[in-house]
C-alpha cells in the first residue's frame, strides 16, 4: 500500500510541477520586459559584430527562475500529497498511462518540429520493420538470460565490447598538421581552441595578457606540453585520452549503479550514439570544445561519486574537493556546474539523515569546500605568478560568458515544441524521484545518484538554452541518457505490471539505439580514419607547406605575427609565439583587439607579417581594413609554395 501511495504521489507531483512551472514561465513572459543592453555594449564591439547579438533576457529569466523554484515546488507538492489518501492502484495506472501518452505525444510533436532530425539515422526510423524485429529478438534474449547466474558472463563480454568501442571512437580524433585544412572545422572550431594552447607555451598567460573563452585548460596542460613539446599530433593525442576517460567513466558508472548488466550495456551504447556519434557523424568535426573540454570533469564527477558510494571512504571525499575546484579553472561553464553538482551530492545524504547535527554537518562541508577551493586557486595563482610575474584576473573567466550568455552573441531562442521538452522531463522526474526519500528520511543510494545527475543535467542544459541550435542540443543532452537506463532498471524490478511493461518498451528503444550505434560506428570510421592515416602518409598539404614556409624565416621561440584562421596551428608547429596580446582571430570579438592589430600595423611596430589567404574568410569587413593597412605600409617579399601565405616586410 505504501508503494502505491508513493507512486501516486510521485506522478501527481510531476504533473503539478509542470503546471506550476508553466504558469511561472507564462507570468515572466507577461510581466518581465527588460531594457535592451545592445546600446550599453555598443562601445565594446564593432557594428558588424553587433549584428550577431540576439539577447534573450526573458528566456534566461524564465530558465533561472524555474531552476530556483523547482526544488521548493517539488518539496511542497510532496508534502501535500503525502498527507492525502491517494492509495488507489487504479488511479496510479490511469495517471501512468496518461503520462506515457503525453510523453509519446510530446516526443512525436517535438521530432516532427525538427523534421525528425535526431532520429533520421535511427534504425527504428530508417528501417522500422527490421529494427523492430532485431530489437524484439534481443529483448527476448535478454529476458531469457537475465537471471543472476548469467550476469557475470554478460558483464565481462559487454564490458570488453564497450571498452573496445570507447577506445576506437576516441582514437579517431588523433591527427596531425597534415590533416589541417580550410573550412569551419579547422579555421573556427579547432583554431579557436588551439590558439590559446599554442600562445601559453611561451610569453603569454591567460587572463594576464590574453583572453580565452574556453577556460584555463591550456594553462593546466602547459606543463605537460613543456615536457612533450606541442604539435597538433600531441595535442589531439591528449584529447583522445581525455575523451576515452569520459567514455570509460560513463561505462564504469552504469555498470556500478545498475544491477542488470545488459541494461548497463545498452544504456552505454545509447549514450554513445545520441551523446557522441550522432553529432560527430553529421560532419567531420571533433569539436574538442565540448568533448573533452566540457565533459571531462562531469565524467570525473561520475567516477568520484560512484567510488565514494561504493567504498564509503573519505579519501574520495577529499579527492573530490581537490578535483572539482580545478574543474572551475579548467572550464568555468562546465566546471562550476560540476562543482555545484558535487556539493549538492554531499548535501543530499545529510538532508536524508535529518537530525539536530544537520547544520553542523552542512557547515563542515562548506568550510572544507571553501578551504580546498581557496587553496586550489591560491596554488594556481602562485604558479601563474612564477610563470608570468602577475596574478591572473579571474573575472576573465566570465568575460566570454557575458558576451555569449548575458549579451546574447550568436544566441538562438528555444522553440516551444522540441525534443528538449523530454530531456527536461527526464531531469524533472529525477528530482521528483530523488527528493521523495529526503522528505521521508529514507536514504536510497540510487536516488542519491539520480539527484546528482538531474542537477548536473539542468546545469549543463544552459549551454543549449542560450544557443538553441539542434547541433548544440545533440551534445548537451547526454546526462539524460545516463538517467534513462537507471529508470528502466528501476521499473523492471518493480512489482507493478504497468512498470514492467514500460520497462520493456524502454529496453526495446535502448536496444534499437544500440543496434543503430553499431551501424553508425563503421560510418564514423570511414569519415575519421582517412585523417588518422595522414599520421603515417604525411602528405604535403597546404598547411604543411605554410609551416615549412614560416620556418624558413624564423627560429624557435621567436615572437611573430601570423594573420590566419589557422594561426594557432602555425604557432604550435613552428614553436613561435604570438607577438601581439590579442586572442586568436577565431575568437576575436572586442573592438579593442581589432584596434590593437590595426594600430600596430599602421605605426609599423611589427617587422614582418605572415598573411594567410583565409584571413578574409570571417569578420570580412574588419579584416579587409587590416589587409588594406598591410598593403599601405608593408611590401610582399615571399610566398609559400602553394601561394596561400605571403610574407610582408615593413617598408
Automatic annotation (TrEMBL):
Residues spanning the membrane: 12-32, 63-81, 90-111, 123-141, 153-172, 231-255, 261-279, 291-309, 315-345, 366-386, 417-435, 447-466, 472-488, 500-524
Keyword Transferase belongs to the record: no
Keywords: Membrane, Transmembrane, Transmembrane helix
Taxonomy, superkingdom: Bacteria
Keyword check for Transmembrane helix: yes
Protein name: Glycosyltransferase RgtA/B/C/D-like domain-containing protein
Lineage: Bacteria, Bacillati, Bacillota, Bacilli, Bacillales
